[in-house]
Amino acid sequence: MQKNYSVKKILEVMWGGMRMYKWSVFLLVILSLTATICGVVIPLFYKAFFDILAQTTPVTDRGPELIRLILMIFAINGFGWLCWRVVVFVNNTFQPNVKKNLEINSFAYVLDHSYTFFSNAFVGSLVRKIHRLANAFEKLMDELLWNILTLVVVVVGNLIVLFLRDVRLGIVLLICVAVIAIFNVTFAMWKLKYDYAKSLLDSESTAVLSDALTNSTTIKLFASQEQEKIVFGNVMERWRKAQTRLWNYDGIAESVQAGLMVLAEFVMFYVAIQLWQQGLLTIGDFALIQGFMVGIFMRVWNLGKSIRHIYEGLADAAEMVEILETPHEVKDAAKVDLMNVTDGSIQFQDVTFKFNQTRVVLNGLNMIIQPHEKVALVGPSGAGKTTITKLLLRFHDVESGVISVDGQNIANVTQNSLRENIAMVPQEPILFHRSLLDNIRYGRPSATDEEVVEAAKRARCHEFIMELPETYQTFVGERGIKLSGGERQRIAIARAILKNAPILVLDEATSSLDSESESLIQAALDELMKGKTTIVIAHRLSTIMRMDRILVIDGGKVADTGTHSELLKKEGIYKKLWEIQAGGFIK
Q1: Which of 27, 314, 440, 569 is the most exposed place for a label (fewest CB within 10 A)?
Q2: What is the pLDDT of residues 130-186, one digit of tens each?
Q3: What is the pLDDT of residues 470-529, one digit of tens each?
Q4: Host domain of residue 373
């Protein structure tokens, strides 16, 4: 495990999920201790039972006492059984609740990570890490509750009884248990680095598998199934070697532990025989010692596995704790206001932004968009057009400069209130694997079914929806794969229409539409843009020409500005881009 993610930090994260159930924890511990103590007491009654059997008095005289002893054993066993049953049912409620909290907390924290974070992460790997944190809690809780806690009580109780019987018996048991325990702890700590390495390979294999399945169409297009099979096979081969190595180490540990137990039992009974020969022990004491040894060995045998499981759980949890300990790149300031948009004016003042501190995308950008103005951003690929919209939505924070909406610095308002006032139709809209009704309603969750249908009609997608077998209840598949690109964009436009935010961003919103679909949707876009401040990134001339003003972005700055006709009169970037699209390739 990496030193940055200590056991203390992992336990703090888990305690965050179980804090509200602390009384359940208290009850589980008390009942487990009580039930285990019952198990420690039982061999004392068996000792008395066998001592009575060994007496030479008439059998009829010993019968009532023997019956009394077995009734006591029955009562104590029954009480212990009752305690364990309560523990089981309390635990059945406690653990699922805590796992739910851990997964929800992890999910919420991951969602608040920045656009950059998700760009650099595999979704499948993130899903697995979130689940593994919750599963690690279950593993740790089970081991601590059912094995470690009971082992401590049994060892301490047995040592007290044996020390009271004869100090030498207590010393022998203490040494035996200490040697086995030290071996298990030392071995588990030594093996931890291999557990963590295997956990990383688990995540890597999930990431590779998820990445390949997400790009299954691309794999088919390039006929690269065998290549991907080799890539995944290489990862799984490394995982196989790591898993085999761990199991071999576990086999060696179990062999050593079994040998130590055999030796411990021999030494204990050898000493007991010597004491019996001296008249210091009775036949019942041998039953007591055997009962103690069996009970301890059962638990000590599981100690090795328990410690390994605990460290495996810690290694599994460490990956998610690493994410939970990673500060959010974009976060609200300590004191922030809610964004209040009345006019929708947008201003960029000396805005500089870099990717990875090396690639400068925007370099002192200045621009003002008036309320309700419709502005197109054009320029060469990589000029920073899409970056401008991401900065406006605060997917990234600027290196320097200020972005303001209606005079409010967007860094001084909550991210959610900012984004609630901006509707965006991206170039490649991604839909949830939910019904079309739910996907459109995502723009405004409180909207009625009638309002959803009206938005769909305005976006010109009602017609194709009604042709589907389940109409608005049709599930669209992961990322909306069941729909064509144009259909997905029209659903995204319907979602934006329903949201009805004062600021609208269209990032190549008609790029996936054919000419007929574009003509249908253009009227809806015109209606959508009415009364809204609109930023459009588009290459289609039909879209650009309808804008109030065009901003030419180049070199991270506004290189030129004007209407379509004004810019065509200049020998600049816009005219060159126009000629490429309108007249074919420039010689």
Answers
A1: 569
A2: 877 888 888 888 888 888 888 888 888 888 888 888 888 888 888 888 888 888 778
A3: 887 888 776 667 777 777 888 888 888 888 888 888 887 666 566 666 666 677 677 778
A4: 336-421+538-587
Nearest CA to 550 out of 572, 525, 528 is that of 572
167 φ, ψ (degrees, to nearest 5): -55, -35
Q: Name residue, tokens 């009974």.
A: 269
Cα–Cα distance for residue pair 499/444, rounded to 1 Å: 5
Question: In this structure, are 219 and 143 located in the same domain?
Answer: yes
Cα(418)–Cα(475) distance, integer angstroms: 30
Domain stop point among 324, 347, 370:
324
**Nearest alpha-carbon partner for 544 in 568, 572, 517:** 568
Q: What distance in Å separates the CA atoms of residue 332 and residue 445, rounded to the nearest whole number?
A: 24
Q: Residue 289: inside a domain, yes or no?
A: yes
Token readout for 454 is: 């009206």
For 538, half-sphere exposure in the C-beta direction (CA atoms, 13 angstrom radius) is 25
Residue 407 has pLDDT above 90, yes or no: no
537 phi, psi to nearest 5 deg? -105, 115
List pLDDT tens digits, range 183-202.
877 887 787 778 778 878 88
Cα separation, 356 vs 125, in Å, equals 23
The whole-number pLDDT of residue 279 equals 80
Residue 500 lies in a domain: no
Q: Is 90 helix (H, G, I), strand (E, B) or coil?
A: helix
DSSP per residue over 293-352, as a string? HHHHHHHHHHHHHHHHHHHHHHHHHHHHHHHHTSPPSS---SS-B----SS--EEEEEEE
Q: Among all chains, which residue has been given the structure tokens 């010393």?
A: 171
pTM value > 0.85 = no
